[in-house]
């Protein structure tokens, strides 16, 4: 019985640690999708849904802003790669990431080599505008 309680407590702790909120907004003709918190296998579908919604509107550009992400797991990186591959040819795509929790993993696995990476949203918007 104690083992069941410990397992339940461990499950509750792990599910509460996977918290992610995703905001979406439009800046001119650019869609900005900004997750916050933890992007892992439990929360990556939220990010994927927001990106798909943004892309369905055929924006001129899409920015995935990871500024408020505390942890980016491989599932989140997979969503970004899939979005890059599925986007319309007329849609420019980039990522905002700075620091060890986001830009470092994106650089280590090579995603930064295929998707432009910027330190700030302003830099990303300026690059998409040029």
From TrEMBL:
<comment type="similarity">
    <text>Belongs to the anti-sigma-factor antagonist family.</text>
</comment>
<protein>
    <recommendedName>
        <fullName>Anti-sigma factor antagonist</fullName>
    </recommendedName>
</protein>
<dbReference type="InterPro" id="IPR003658">
    <property type="entry name" value="Anti-sigma_ant"/>
</dbReference>
<dbReference type="Pfam" id="PF01740">
    <property type="entry name" value="STAS"/>
</dbReference>
<dbReference type="InterPro" id="IPR036513">
    <property type="entry name" value="STAS_dom_sf"/>
</dbReference>
<dbReference type="InterPro" id="IPR002645">
    <property type="entry name" value="STAS_dom"/>
</dbReference>
<dbReference type="GO" id="GO:0043856">
    <property type="term" value="F:anti-sigma factor antagonist activity"/>
</dbReference>
<feature type="domain" description="STAS">
    <location>
        <begin position="20"/>
        <end position="128"/>
    </location>
</feature>
């Amino acid at each position: 019985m104690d083992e069941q309680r410990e397992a339940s407590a461990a499950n509750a702790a792990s599910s509460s640690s996977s918290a992610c909120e995703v905001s979406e907004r439009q800046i001119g003709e650019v869609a900005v999708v900004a997750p916050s918190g933890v992007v892992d296998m439990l929360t990556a579908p939220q990010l994927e849904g927001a990106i798909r919604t943004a892309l369905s509107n055929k924006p001129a550009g899409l920015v995935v802003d990871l500024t408020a992400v505390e942890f980016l797991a491989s599932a989140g990186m997979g969503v970004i790669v899939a979005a890059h591959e599925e986007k319309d040819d007329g849609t420019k795509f980039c990522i905002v990431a700075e620091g060890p929790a986001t830009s470092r993993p994106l650089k280590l696995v090579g995603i930064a080599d295929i998707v432009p990476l910027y330190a700030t949203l302003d830099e990303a918007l300026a690059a998409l505008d040029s």
